[in-house]
Amino acid sequence: MYKIAFYDTKPYDEHSFEDINHPEIEFKFLENKLNKHTATLAKDCDGVCAFVNDDIGKETINELYDNGIRLIAMRCSGYNNIDLKEAKNKITVVRVPGYSPYAVAEHAMGLILCLNRKIHKAYFRTRDYNFSLNGLTGFDLYGKTVGIIGTGKIGKVFAEICKGFGMNVIAYDLFPDTSCDINYVSREQLFKESDIISLHCPLTAETKHIINSETIRIMKSGVFIINTSRGGLVESESLYNALRDGRVGAAGLDVYEEESDLFFEDHSDTIIRDDIIKLFLSLPNVLISSHQAFLTKEALHNIAMCTIQNILDYFEGKESKNVVLEE
Ligand code: NAI
């Protein structure tokens, strides 16, 4: 029996893992995020399972290591919150590379449809018996150009969804997939020609703040920016300024650079100190969801299945393509 400390778990996580028959693994579900202070909670465990906003920096790694932990099983695809350099030669890191590209791609399209046709406004208006249409004019997606940055699993599904709407799809990827029917262009061309830009690349040193005041300057006036990837891809203040000035027409943000202290929790009875998110939320053309794009039944099931398999593979010494870093 392998005992695993599951950090930052919510009821929907617990249900999805408990729904799977897994006699070899004992779960220790913890509400706490993993960080240097909470790492000791795993001292009676054989490994930890962590999520997108856990702080797995140098001190956390060393605290885990000192408590005998040799496995971090991420139950997500991204691992930009782990200090891999520090973990090297100490702890094995595994991840779930893909669990439902449809969940994230469909959410990205949901943000576009809602922002464009102002469904979020219509919802509140009609509940107040306000049936006026003033200010709700959108545009046809048909014939518009969507620029996709990152055409991996999610970007490719998103491209297909956009084609279904009759949109002209262009894309930029550091490693273009020439086997698929995607019109690759340079980053600059994508910025210049897109009516909507959707981000589906990982957060790396190269992609950090890929949306900034310089890149926004070359975009079409009124462009929509959709980010369901990682908050750090967008320089928030520049995006806010461009939204305020009308250079960016709308923003759909499922992720936010400073989300770790906010997202996944109910802060409705506290004073939020993050001024930028308050500014974003004051704009009618911004839609924020709190890292919700992955949240479908299918995705949760696939995450649980893959995480359990990753854990078993590690303890049984099996090779796995889901290993990010070997101990
Ligand atoms: P993937 O690994 O299949 O695809 C990523 C693509 O980005 C690859 O084609 C890669 O070549 C490309 N890429 C890498 N560096 C690049 C660069 N500098 N410029 C342009 N393209 C670059 O990943 P997948 O599964 O499609 O996920 C994409 C991102 O979505 C993840 O990195 C993750 O951050 C995010 N995500 C968000 C979720 C949410 O709930 N909001 C859930 C799951 C993933």
Structure description:
Helix 1 (11-18) packs across helix 11 and helix 4 (101-117) crosses helix 6 (153-164). It is built from eleven helices and 13 strands. The mean pLDDT is 96. It has 327 residues and is α/β, with parallel strands linked by helices. It has helices spanning 11-18, 58-66, 84-87, 101-117, 119-127, 153-164, 187-193, 213-217, 236-244, 275-281, 297-315; strands spanning 2-6, 25-29, 47-50, 71-74, 92-94, 145-149, 168-172, 183-184, 196-199, 223-227, 248-253, 286-288, 323-325. It starts with a strand and ends with a strand. The longest helix is centred in the last third of the chain and has 19 residues, at 297-315. The site of 1,4-dihydronicotinamide adenine dinucleotide has 30 residues, from helix 4 and helix 6. 1,4-dihydronicotinamide adenine dinucleotide (NAI) binds next to helix 4 and helix 6.
What's the short version?
The protein has 327 residues and is of the alpha/beta class. It has eleven helices and 13 strands.
Task: Provide keyphrases for this structure.
327 residues; seven-stranded parallel sheet; six-stranded mixed sheet; single chain; alpha/beta
Proportion of residues in extended strands:
15-25%
Q: How does the helix and strand content classify structurally? A: alpha/beta
Gyration radius over CA: 21 Å
Quaternary organisation: single chain
> What small molecules accompany the polymer chains?
1,4-dihydronicotinamide adenine dinucleotide
